[in-house]
Design a protein that fits this description.
The structure is a homodimer of 333-residue chains. Chain A has 333 residues and is of the alpha/beta class. The first copy, chain A, has three domains: 44 residues, lambda repressor-like DNA-binding domains (434 Repressor (Amino-terminal Domain), Orthogonal Bundle), CATH 1.10.260.40; 124 residues, Rossmann fold; 131 residues, Response regulator (Rossmann fold), CATH 3.40.50. Chain A is built from 13 helices and twelve strands. In chain A, strands 2-1-3-4-5-11 form a six-stranded parallel beta sheet, sandwiched between helices. A four-stranded parallel beta sheet of chain A has the order 7-6-8-9. In chain A, strands 10-12 form a two-stranded antiparallel sheet. In chain A, β6, α9 and β7 form a beta-alpha-beta unit. In chain A, α5 packs parallel to α13 and α8 crosses α9. At the A-B interface, α4, α5, β2, α6 and α12 of A face α4, α5, β2, α6 and α12 of B. The structure holds a DNA duplex (30 and 30 nucleotides).
DNA sequence: TTGTAAAATGTAAACGATTACAGAAAAGCA
DNA sequence: TGCTTTTCTGTAATCGTTTACATTTTACAA
């Protein structure tokens, strides 16, 4: 590999490695003439310091690890990519390296991390009761969590309750009273919080909460489709669906259409995320924009703050925005 | 960070660091009793070897660098994610680290790489005349290139000429004779090769190549839309469009519809990539599936072969597959 | 010219591991 | 028992840097 070392440079320049090291690190105490000469030699030899050797002694790796949750689909998910864009921008701009690691369900996290040297960690959407969070809560290594809110760590997250509230309120103002809440996983914190917002909005509008109108489809399009079809078959009455992602919203629309009803005339549908499918589906889907890119960006910035020791637990709650498209309309009964 | 070192273990066990090192590395020459005792102590102390120190001496980093081209949009692109999935699967399974780096237009590549120690590199879609390729062609560091075909390096790529041929042939067999070729960038090798396939198919079918039917829209949806509208306004005659990605195909469909024509009745449209938009667009788009995930997977496997010194320039050409959906039909005039 | 302070450079230990070589302990054998 | 062979363990150099401290060189004043 890169086999020219500081010693080669030193020898060629007729100085000690210490001096070379000093010019590399811009130490002030080195004669201008020497500095120029050494710089020239470095250039000629094509020398670059050995990252690991340097890290070994300075204990700075200039590496950030991005830790992803173990779900297989995660790497395909659009929100991940948008977040990644935000993150990487900041990290690369600072000339840090970015190392990615997806957790596996089996592997003990400590084993993975203690051998994965880095200056900081960004942990994305950890599972509930995830080992990693516990690990980072104890070890005092700089880290920032995205989409989870551990008490003692820095994090950035979407205000899901507010989002649920905004969406529901919007539908209510369109005249809808029987709004079906279509969650992801029942235990997913995102879903739980959005449901809370949904219920709050209902309450404020004096609409009674109906348990039959809360169902879960694991963020999966096909599941959503199946469930909604069943509901319609069983004559469950609702005039609007609030789906916890756009994929499920698409499934809902398909289901409605296959039951010979129409969106939005008969049933209004709202998605979540503002992903590509919402923009391009045959009926453009009304949805709630999540600022993923900004989340990534903020997480990275926050991490650098944590690494500088400025803070260890600044916690940032972001808002998204309702994007109204074609899948929602006034309730007409 | 992880501050328990091999010395701590050695001291606690009352042996030398050499012995501890031997048990860590499963050297056979260590008494079973000692091994067990040391293993126990390692466990208790939560010791893990320092990655960088180890790398420094063994010259193995267990790290692969994924090098991305400098286009900003790249990180958003769906094909990147699919590829990434294929890659990362293999790399993580082998317990290697995956480091991602996007090139910047300004930064000199050598500077970036010589300080970025790793065992191997995967270079994705390098720009024509890219510095990196030249660099890797000279330095003899294990690497594999995706979507480019440098003579002296290992690579994996799609057979774009064949793809162009297959698509064009399909359209011809539907009765289309005036097929508009909508390329990405004029200089992009992908576009060039697909165009070659297109021309070959025309030739074999005795259809004269018409220069006016070859245009470029930079892989951009809006540009495609604008250009097609213009063509239609100027009464350019064509019954089918072969677009070099699905995004442009979507733009084409929009243009056609806005000119009060219909897809596929009046004009057939074929996209490329088989991305989400092709599956979900209001008219499901006929397209050419690119096996991105497989490409990533093969690239990673190939890289490991190269690293083992088995080969340095195995070159793999993959085929995709035509996916017929709703945007194409028989030519009816 | 000499003395002193400041600036430049060198020496050597350290970072946390591995490993060739040497030395000690154990085992095998007569 | 003593000698040889095998197995186990320790010593110390090494990887490529940085940096505290020591030393040399330079600059300047008297």
């Amino acid at each position: 590999m890169n086999s020219v070392t500081i010693k080669d440079v030193a020898k060629k320049a007729g100085v000690s490695t210490a001096t070379v090291s000093r010019v590399i690190n811009n130490s002030p105490n080195v004669a201008e003439k020497t500095r120029q000469r050494i710089l020239q030699i470095i250039e000629n030899l094509g020398y670059t310091p050995h990252y690991y050797a340097k890290a070994l002694i300075t204990k700075k790796t200039y590496t950030i690890v991005l830790v992803l949750p173990p779900q297989k689909e995660f790497l395909y998910a659009e929100y991940f990519h948008r977040m990644f864009k935000g993150l990487s921008d900041i990290i690369w701009r600072k000339n840090f390296n970015l190392l990615i690691r997806q957790l596996t369900p089996d592997k003990d996290c400590e084993e993975v991390f203690s051998s994965l040297l880095a200056d900081g960690y960004i942990i994305v959407a950890p599972l509930r009761n995830s080992e990693i969070i516990k690990y980072f809560e104890t070890v005092n290594i700089p880290c920032v969590v995205i989409n989870a809110r551990p008490k003692n760590l820095a994090w950035v997250d979407l205000d899901n309750k507010k989002a649920g509230y905004v969406i529901t309120n919007y539908l209510v103002r369109l005249g809808h009273r029987r709004i079906l809440f279509l969650g992801g996983y029942k235990e997913s914190q995102n879903t739980v919080d959005r449901l809370a917002g949904y219920r709050l909005a209902l309450k404020e509008n004096k609409i009674k909460f109906d348990e039959n109108l809360t169902i879960y489809a694991n963020y999966d399009r096909e599941t959503a489709k199946r469930i909604i079809k069943e509901k319609l078959l069983h004559k469950e009455r609702f005039s609007a669906v609030f789906a916890c992602n756009d994929l499920m919203a698409a499934g809902v629309i398909e289901a409605v259409q296959e039951m010979h009803l129409s969106v939005p005339t008969d049933i209004s549908v709202v998605g979540f995320d503002d992903s590509e499918i919402a923009k391009n589906f045959e009926i453009k889907i009304t949805t709630y924009f999540q600022p993923f890119e900004e989340m990534g960006k903020i997480a990275a910035e926050l991490l650098f703050e944590v690494m500088r020791g400025k803070t260890t637990r600044r916690q940032v709650l972001l808002s998204g925005e309702l994007v109204i498209r074609e899948s929602t309309a006034r309730c007409n009964y």
